Amino acid sequence: DPGTLIAPRDDDLEGIRLHQYRMEADDVLEFRLELNAGTQLLSVAFADTAPTPVPITDLPGVDMVSIAGPFDGTVPTDTVSRQKIFVCEPAERTGMPEELCAREIFGSLARRAYRRPVTDSEVETLLGAYREGRGDGSFDAGIERGLETLLAMPQFLLRVDARPVDAEPGGVYAISDLELASRLSFFLWRSLPDEELIDLGAREVLSAPDVLSVQVDRMLADPRASRFLDDFVGQWLQMRDIESHNPDVRLFAAFNDTLREAMVRETELFFQSQVREDRPIGDLLLADYTYLNERLA
Question: Per the database record, which ranges form the DUF1595 domain (predicted)?
Fold first, then answer.
């Protein structure tokens, strides 16, 4: 079947016989890479240099990628993620009692993670884990233990809409403004609601039409909305399926991954323009423009 033939067999890998390569693969493939601090995207793949097709069963594959470091032995003491967690500093730097600072940290973290105002008992549960970690080590170790506990809590892992006590079984009822904040955020941002959404939800004003309209516009203008826009195109127009399509190389010799990526990106950019520029819905079908790079054109 020509559809299963996509690359050639090669008895050598850069001059190394395959049986020898299997014995020395870890040494051959291990290397160090200098990266700047912050979020990085790493991808690993085999270069497609196949001159002739061979059965797919003869192709090598990437089984696992392991990342370790830093190699210089230093760990940043003040990062963006740490600043978001440590909203206060303990006694040795500010004179603030450690447990009071821990309570402030977990109050802030739990409000964001649970997507609503939290109770004293919920914070106390996290402080209990903090005390265990603090007893075994430093203040930071205590915060780490409490954070591990928070990330395992059902209030963080699950999104639950509480049915009003007077609601009829199987009936329709309005969700709360806090529940609306979570739904909006996971829909448009694929993430937790920010403090502005939580505050509006807690004050029960988010569902007001004028407030809701302003918030939707704000969220769509935020960079986080790109997650929704890309995912929506991938699911609605089934653009994700392009990854699994391999046209017959005898009929489409010019087709490659670069062209595949350009096809997907064209559709993503087109849909993003419809939403962010508030274009008429009819433009989805009748627009006389699109987004092309040289390869796709």
Answer: 101-160
- What are the pLDDT digits (tens) for 95-134? 789 999 999 999 999 999 999 999 999 999 999 999 999 9
Residues 92 and 153 in one domain: yes
Residue pair 95/84 in contact (Cβ under 8 Å)? The answer is no
- Beta-carbon contacts of 249 under 8 Å, excluding residues fewer than 6 positions away, are 2, 6, 53, 255
- Tally of domains within the chain: 4
Instruction: Specify whether 142 is located in the same domain as 86.
Output: yes
How are beta strands 54-55 and 5-7 bridged, if at all?
antiparallel
- State how far the Cα of 136 lies from the Cα of 105, in Å rounded to an integer: 19
What's the length of the chain?
Answer: 297
The domain of 201 spans: 160-222
Q: What span, in angstroms and rounded, lies between the C-alpha atoms of 106 and 113?
A: 10
Distance of CA 50 to the CA centre of its chain: 34
Does 97 fall in a domain?
yes
